Amino acid sequence: MRLDKALANSGFGSRTEVKDFIRSGRVSLAGEILRDPAASISQEQASLLCLDGEILTVRRYLYYLLNKPAGLVTAMNSREANIGELLPVFFGQKKITPVGRLDKDTTGLLLLTNHGELQHRLLSPRYGIPRRYYVEVQVLDHPFNDADVEQVAIGVRLNDAELSRPANLAILSPTAAYLELREGKFHEVKRMMHALGKEVTKLHRESYGSVRLHEEVTGSLRALTEDEILSLLASVRLLDPLD
Ligand code: URA
User: Cα(89) to centroid of ligand 1, in Å?
Assistant: First the structure.
């Protein structure tokens, strides 16, 4: 594979940016500086590339986290304001798409990747990956109480045909709680809360599997760290470290 392509594919910048830093002598292979963006490198060599003396991990797929603001739909292209407006152009070229959806008014952690099998497994109920939400409600019937915790732990009837999977509710106040689900049915949190006599007024996802939000500013995007990528892959039994 061409050196510039390998680096651009691995998220180190656009093809033009990558060419610039190769030409300026910042990329080396086993101690030898590579200045030709078109240089051909093998998979084995790719694992020995350095940028400014630091070893690079050249990945086949790309993995990101967006701290989604309210007011945007989870779509890359839409008539409505959408998260695509916050993402660089190369996301479209590299087919990087969100893992599942958050509602327009929901904020928080949204994973994005072009690793199709990982997306599929993270969403599949078969793997039961936990998603943790902070939820605030308006009380229609009764404030959060122990009966709600028990009901959520057994499963909440969403309609005639659907029952939520057993989940965890941790009450913070009469109108606020953490809810951890291991599946992602359509509008699931809102429908669960409705069944428990409450209306959601704020919904924020704090984590998805082992990946959590820290101090990321609302609307900001960052690449996942190596540790985050490896633990997500391991959680769904995708173990190839360069996948
Ligand atoms: N459940 C919902 O109801 N909405 C979301 O955005 C996510 C989970």
Answer: 27
What is the CATH superfamily name and number for domain 130-208? Alpha-L RNA-binding motif (3.30.70.1560)
- Ligand 1 pocket residue status of 203, Cβ below 6 Å: yes
Q: Where are the beta strands (DSSP E) in 69-210?
A: 97-98, 107-113, 131-139, 168-173, 176-181, 198-208
Index of the ligand 1 atom closest to the CA of residue 191: 3
Q: Which amino acid is at 26?
A: R
Architecture (CATH level 2) of domain 3-55: Roll (3.10)
Convert the pLDDT of each residue in 133-183 to its tens digit.
999 999 999 999 999 999 999 999 999 899 999 999 999 999 999 999 999
Largest CA distance in the chain: 70
Pocket of ligand 1 contains residue 187 by CB under 6 Å: yes
Catalytic-role residue among 4, 20, 52, 103: 103
Q: What is the DSSP string of 40-79?
A: B--HHHHTTEEETTEEP---SS-EEEEEEPTT-BS-SS-S
Could you tell me the pTM of the whole model? Answer: 0.86
